[in-house]
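Final report, results section. Input specification for complex C-07:
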Amino acid sequence: MTKVEGVIDPVANDTDEMFIGWAPAPAVDRRFLLGALPLGLAASVGSSWLVSKELGDPGAGAWQTNATHRVTGVLSTDPYPMLRIADPSAPYGMRTVLIVAQGKCTSALQLADVAGKVVTAAGALIQRKERQMLEVPLFLDKWLEPADDGSVSEALLTPDVESIGSFELAGQVMDSKCFFGVMRPGRGKTHKACASLCIRGGIPPSMWVRNGAGGESVLLLTGENGGPMPMDILPFVADPVSVTGEVVRVGDLLQLRANLAAFQRV
Amino acid sequence: MAHEYKAIQWNGNKIVYDLYVLAAIVAFITVFMVVGLATYESGHTADPVVLFIRALGTCAFALLTVVLAIGPLARLNKRFLTMLYNRRHLGVITFIISAAHFGLALLWYHGGGPLNPFISLFVSNSQYDSIPGFPFEVLGFAAFLILLLMASTSHDFWLNNLSAPVWKAIHMLVYPAYALLVMHIVLGALMTEKSMVYPLMTAAAFLGVSGLHIFTGMREWGADNGMKRLKAKGWVEVCAPEDIAENRAVIAPMPKGDRVAVFRYDNKISAVTNACRHQNGPLGEGRVVDGCITCPWHGWQYRPDDGVSPPPFTEKISTYNVKIEGGVIFVDPKPNKPGVKTTPALIDSNRASA
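Structure output:
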């Protein structure tokens, strides 16, 4: 007789010896695996190669953790911790090196007593092109010592402030530390949470602006009056934004001074 | 099958399986790191930690895609049963890789700051009201918690103590977890990286897994529709004994929708539920090996007449009463309790030939 409608006969599609996990594999399965396993390995290597090679350029930047970098200059905390170093060969005769703490807690650095003094600082250099930053331990005695000469250059203590003009700029708000080289890449949405946490912890925010020719400008981001940027900037971090603000040169450093209300997501 | 619990159950095949998976993972991550560090010139080199986080995440997603593809592939081609057999180990390895990805990302992106890393995970990106801006990390964390639950309950101890339906329900959460991971990638890496390779590969993985499940699901649905046409009361007519190959079965639909595996062996006919006690594997697609019905998925065994695993094992499945009248096998659609001994129907050897 024929089988009743709906009765399934697995034998119709499967007459080979059955694979049982606790028994030696039948020859038909061994032949299959001899072909499938190298193919699987090739797929693993091939997909890994493809995904990895297509990753975007992490950007120029370095974090020199294997060497201690020492710089001597005038320490300022306005609007963020930084050292201004006399350098006759540099534009405007000085170089500004931002100071950040290890990790993401720069605001825990107690620098009020040494602000305006000449000091030597030691730490790990973070550098993206001409922009420099020094990463130091949280405790001052581990990295900071007064410099011998004690004389303070007026140019370093109160550098020239020059207004370049008001501009509408499009770009991203970055945390300077990651962007300068600690994280590569240190931009975009995958880095948004980290950048937000860094800025919340007192790491200076920067505005990263690119022109059509592939060039980039990094401007230290401050509040409208040149003070620290309010924490209300955090929701805009790492998003494409446009902002109208005043570009100001302070010593050798370009700042973008902007009101929070001027930021718009693009 | 287990008469005692071991932390990890291995045998020769499983050891080969696990070593192969580990080799594939090591190859994947090594190639990812080497290529990632070499792609851009000095001064533009990717951060090795960020690269490693990405390698682990990509690897975990690829592994989960494979884990989910194996089931339907094994429905389409029996050779893939060799990969289904040890899928649980593959799942746990996938969890370990995803845990490494999660832990390192939490430490690197959310650690060392003014907030507890777990709080930072939820508040550092507050754009919960935006689809493109949505914090993708939260989606990945939700998927990780599901994988953690699944890995924690993967052992047969939990299968036996939670009961098969509860265990199965927990492990069906792998599908929401996979959907969460796809969104984790779409709203994370795909929003940052510009290469078209990433959306194409993600779509291929998601559509591949979905397509395989839909295709095999429709085949099963077609078979179920055949079953629903059977409305007869009383004993259900199946087929003639000679329609069943020796040591094999046919799968017969019952009026209430359950499936019964009707086995022929040693000139006898016995019927048991088609669902294995272990993970609902299709017993009717198995064989009678050494006198026992053997599940094609993981090799669990039951005696045909009482549905009890051979000593020292103790698992039991439901049996069904059978009879042969006029050269036709009939099954009583009312299942016996698991382990209840039945009387096999004897085949008239003058009628039936193997």
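Chain B has eleven helices and eleven strands. Residues 231 and 255 of chain B are 5 Å apart (CA to CA). This concludes the modelling results for the funded period.
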